[in-house]
Specification:
About 45% of the residues lie in helices and about 20% in strands. By secondary structure, the protein is an alpha+beta fold. The chain has two domains: about 80 residues, Arc Repressor Mutant, subunit A; about 170 residues, GAF domain (Beta-Lactamase), CATH 3.30.450. The strands form two sheets. It has a six-stranded antiparallel β-sheet with strand order 5-4-3-8-7-6. A hairpin with a 7-residue loop joins strand 7 and strand 8. Helix 1 crosses helix 2. It starts with 14 loop residues before the first helix and ends with a helix.
Amino acid sequence: MTLTAGALASDTPAPAAFRAVQVLETLAARRGPATITEVASATHLAKSSVCNLLVTLEAAGMVRRTHGGWVVGYKAIEIGQSVLSSTDLVAEFRRVVAAMPVLRGETVLLAVLDGVDVLYLARHDGQQQVRLASDIGRRLPAVVTSLGKAMLASLPDDELEQRLSGLGPMPRPTRRSHRTIDDLRRDLHAIRERGFAVDEEENTIGVTCFGVALATDDQPTAVSTTLLSQRATPELRGQLISDLRLAAAQLSPFARV
């Protein structure tokens, strides 16, 4: 869950720092540049405050100006990459997936659950000609991804209900997406029973994904593979799920650190 959806700056010891993070999150969530007016509207801050924050962040290299407005700066990207490079889980993900007999040839993703969003940490591109993966650092609604549903299904009932209570309207990027919370709950129950999640064109028409949650103590984490639906034969499906389960088992100790 992002800061803009949660606490107030006045509830924190350093309100200015909190507001700066709000500005960064707003820019990071956009596909293109944002104007001061747009940032002010998204963060509910005065335009004068947003202007001061942007100028300060620009001096630190965290944001930069373009002809269309403001975007996240290269320093923020550098910091994000340094976090990933220092994480044993990401390095182990690359090693484990590369050793999987079938999975290594496919697009494979590693992600964590943040509120009711999936946040992508790492990607293995495999050998497929068509790239079918989300960029590292991107967020997607958990309820329309195999990764997200696998992680939601791994939660205790009380925590699951707490997260779903903040979901709002069900995201429906395709006609196959769940229409209601009850539909989602039935899917999550089935995922718990069989031990893996399936996204059958719920996020993108023509694309199927399989996901398996890691066994973690705190931060929900999962691995998935993404492929064209026409390639998802029963035989390949079984092989991929087997590899995903093995990969999840090997990665789980690193996710508990």
